[in-house]
Every structure is written in structure tokens, then in C-alpha cells.
TrEMBL record:
Source organism of this protein record: Roseburia zhanii
Alphabetically ordered keywords of this record: Amino-acid biosynthesis, Glycosidase, Hydrolase, Methionine biosynthesis
Pathway note: Amino-acid biosynthesis; L-methionine biosynthesis via salvage pathway; S-methyl-5-thio-alpha-D-ribose 1-phosphate from S-methyl-5'-thioadenosine (hydrolase route): step 1/2
Primary enzyme class: hydrolase
Entry-linked Gene3D superfamilies: Nucleoside phosphorylase domain
Name assigned to this protein: adenosylhomocysteine nucleosidase
EC number: 3.2.2.9
Species lineage: Bacteria, Bacillati, Bacillota, Clostridia, Lachnospirales
Keyword Hydrolase in record: yes
GO BP terms: L-methionine salvage from methylthioadenosine; L-methionine salvage from S-adenosylmethionine; nucleoside catabolic process
Length: 230
């Protein structure tokens, strides 16, 4: 069974519409929608925005359903000039950019007491996503790289530059690494699939609403294709 988490209604609404044999379960103030997506057993859930909602949702998903992997879908801000609005980013790994225990000698983003600096996405899921994307989104560029997550909508050149300098991120969003973190603690494979809605700079607040729908369309098409391959 496949677990699919999006932060906002818009990111999961189309997936829910496409599901058959739907059953709803409520937990942690969230609605878990179980059914078949493109022939595969799946649970789709809206977590809400930010790391705490995402972490709570992921643990509830794992506790209530026998999911064999967790996929986080949605939109993100690009951190690289070569990654354009509408493109897809598949995570190689993810980290929490607002974790700061530097005063105690840790690196920026490093979580005290944890063995890993970033959470590594599952290779098999990455391969399936890449192949699936080339089939269903042939005109869209697919990139692979680090996703940097924080409780912040990034919309300034300064913050964008800071994220690139410190973490070499590909894109930024507000849930992915929290989902990855919980999946890691539960030893469940994960992947973050994000479509780019803005450039995470001074134009981000204007670009975001304009391109949100298009970006979501691309990620929904890919997630549906992936479900059929899993
Ligand atoms: N999600 C989409 N664009 C984003 C941005 N610029 N910062 C954080 N999360 C985002």
C-alpha cells in the first residue's frame, strides 16, 4: 500500500477524485482517504502546511495503514537558475534548513543526536518516478537533487542565496524533510516529488498563485503514473 501526502487541498484533491473504492478514516484531525489509485492500493491525505503537520500526518499514516512507502507530493520554490517554473524535482535527499544548533558545535541543519545529516530518498522510487515522468510529462524537465525544508515561505533573494550557499539545495518547501524524517525513524522508504511554482525570490509571492495550478497538474500526473507502476 502506497502512502501519499500533500500539504494543501489543491495538491491532493485531484488524486482523491481519481480514486475508487474509497474509505475515509479520521485520525489526528486529518482525513485519510484509502482506495485504489490507478489500480494500486493507496492512502491519500492532506497534512496541512509546515513541518509539524507533516510529521504528525506521516506518523498517523504509518500507524493506521500498512504502507510500504511514503510519497510527498506538491509544489516548491526553485533554488537553481536551471530549474524552471513547471519543472519537476525528485529528491535525492532532504534536510530541515531551519534546524540550528550551531551554538553547540553542530553544523547548520544538523539535528543533534541523529546519525544522518540529511534523509536519503529511496533509489527504487526515484527510478520509477523518473521513468514515469518521462512518459507522462515528456516536455517537462526532471531534476534530481536536495530538497531543503523549513517553516518559511522563501521569497527573498538573500534567503535563497543563503539556502544555496549552506545546503546546495535544488528546491525549497515546507514539509518534505519532516515527512522524510518520520519515514526514516520508521524505516519506511520515501520520495519527495515537487513541481516548481516559483523561484523562491522577490517574485515568488506573485508567481506562486499564477503557476500553482499548472505545477500541481504536473505532479498529479506523475503520482498517478507512479501508483500504476508500484
Ligand atoms: N512552496 C512553493 N514555493 C515555496 C517557497 N518559495 N518557499 C517555501 N515553500 C514553497
Amino acid at each position: 500500500m502506497l502512502g501519499i501526502i500533500g500539504a494543501m487541498d489543491q495538491e491532493v484533491a485531484k488524486l482523491k477524485e481519481m480514486m475508487t473504492e474509497v474509505e475515509i478514516t479520521k485520525a489526528a484531525s486529518m482525513e485519510f482517504c484509502k482506495g485504489k489509485l490507478n489500480g494500486t492500493e493507496a492512502v491519500v491525505v492532506r497534512a496541512g502546511v509546515g513541518k509539524v503537520n507533516a510529521a504528525c500526518c506521516t506518523q498517523a499514516l504509518i500507524d493506521h495503514f500498512p504502507v510500504s512507502c511514503v510519497i510527498n507530493t506538491g509544489i516548491a520554490g526553485s533554488l537553481q537558475a536551471s530549474i524552471d517554473i513547471g519543472d519537476i524535482v525528485l529528491a535525492t535527499d532532504a534536510l530541515e534548513h531551519d534546524m540550528d544548533a550551531v551554538s553547540f558545535g553542530y553544523g547548520l541543519g544538523q539535528i543533534p543526536g541523529m546519525e544522518v545529516f540529511s534523509f536519503t530518498a529511496d533509489e527504487k522510487l526515484r527510478k520509477i518516478a523518473k521513468e514515469g515522468c518521462e512518459k507522462v510529462n515528456p516536455d517537462i524537465s526532471v531534476h534530481e537533487g536536495r530538497v531543503v525544508t523549513g517553516d518559511q515561505f522563501v521569497s527573498s533573494k538573500e534567503k535563497k542565496t543563503w539556502l544555496v550557499e549552506h545546503f546546495d539545495g535544488c528546491c525549497t518547501e515546507m514539509e518534505g524533510a519532516a515527512i522524510a524524517h518520520v519515514a526514516y525513524l520508521n524505516q519506511i522508504p520515501f520520495l519527495i516529488v515537487r513541481a516548481i511554482s516559483d523561484k523562491a525570490d522577490d517574485s515568488a509571492h506573485m508567481d506562486y498563485p499564477t503557476f500553482e495550478a499548472k505545477a500541481i497538474e504536473h505532479s498529479v500526473r506523475l503520482i498517478t503514473e507512479m501508483a500504476g507502476r508500484l
